[in-house]
Every structure is written in C-alpha cells, then in structure tokens.
Sequence to fold (99 residues):
Amino acid sequence: MSNAIKYSKKGTVIEVKCEILGNTARVSIQDQSIGIRPNDIEKLFERYYRVDEINAKHISGFGIGLYLSAEIIQRHDGRIWVESEIGKGSTFYFSLPLT
Fold:
C-alpha cells in the first residue's frame, strides 16, 4: 500500500480489494502509478532490488519491502505477483489459503 502511494501522482485513486475465491483469500492493490517495465517485474521481489527509473529517483527506499512481503506470504503457502503497464499503473496481488 505504501508503494502505491509513493509511486502514484497526488490525487489519483488507489483501489484495494479482498476477495474469497474458493479456499483462498486474494488481496489486490491497484494504483495509477508510473508502471513497471517487464524486465523489472521479474526482479521486483528480490532483496534490495530497486527499479532504475528516472521518474522514481526522488523516491526513497531500500528495496526490502516487497522482498519481505513475498517471504512472509510464501511462508504461509501464499503467492504474490504484479501486473503492470507503463504509464497506466500497477496492480499487486497476493493470495493466501484460508485453511
């Protein structure tokens, strides 16, 4: 959620959803950010990885937030992923089993 706020322009909408799909809870956070390039998506959940984007140079961070989120979710038998389009935004998802 904090990344969605940090990487989006002021005044844009961030949509958060939680859905029950069978025996799984799926949460999504959709923003209207600068978007993420496909080659960055592959590395996004790695420890200390930061997107090297000129429009994001002013945004602080250490590259551990998404890594820690992924570790926690995976240790609970869940899944985390992102869909993104440059200039249109990103949707981050995670799912966790309910049992």
Summary: The radius of gyration is 14 Å.
